[in-house]
Amino acid sequence: MFERSRLPTTALALALVCAVAGTVVVGTFAAPAAAGDNIAIFALDPAETDAEVGETIEIDLVVSTHGDYVGDGIDELSATVVYDADVFSVAEVTHGEMLAHGDPDAEVTGSSEVADGEVTISQEREPSGDGAATTEPAATIAFDIAPDAPTANETLEITDASAILVSDYPQGTIERESTVSIDAVETSSGSSASTDAVPGVGAIPVLALGGAGLILYLVRQGRS
């Protein structure tokens, strides 16, 4: 009696264990696909950088996509980078080859539009082919930092990112910003400026010290 009642219980327990294990295995392999497929990540690189007033820095717009569930990549992308126009100005935008990945005959047609405090980058791949599925810089933006910019942590932010698959369906997007730590020297008037002068020593005190030294030298020469 007891032996017969154990067999169904053991079999049921084994079935439950197998079912749970199967669910865990399926979930483990499905998670990367659900999290990564059909998503395009737009990021500014480096994510953190130091700079000085009056300097020109370069920031990469990196796009990462694995394509869709059937392996098709993207053939169009666009993004707007927002910045403080009192601190930054766009000096140049250079388009990269990210969108041409996977086809040596593919070309990237790109454009950029600079407005007050933002630059919009748009690109298309010709021919579309299978599209691009990779992680590479799509463009490089050169920013000039104003010579009177204050010491601060400034944020460069991506908005309105868009990635279009060759099937004409849009991918979901994730946008990642960048922080620029700007170092400026405070002048006596309270404004910021970059200078090579010795901190705390102005031009007039230096001249006064030089004149005093010259007088002392002449006095010693007269005594000798």
TrEMBL record:
Pfam families: Cohesin
Keyword Transmembrane annotated: yes
SUPFAM superfamilies listed in its UniProt record: Carbohydrate-binding domain
Gene Ontology molecular function: carbohydrate binding
Cohesin domain ranges (all copies): 47-161
Record InterPro entries: CBM2/CBM3_carb-bd_dom_sf, Cohesin_dom
Keywords: Membrane, Transmembrane, Transmembrane helix
BP GO annotations: polysaccharide catabolic process
Presence of keyword Cell cycle: no
Domain of life (superkingdom): Archaea
Transmembrane segments: 197-219
Name of the molecule in the record: Cohesin domain protein
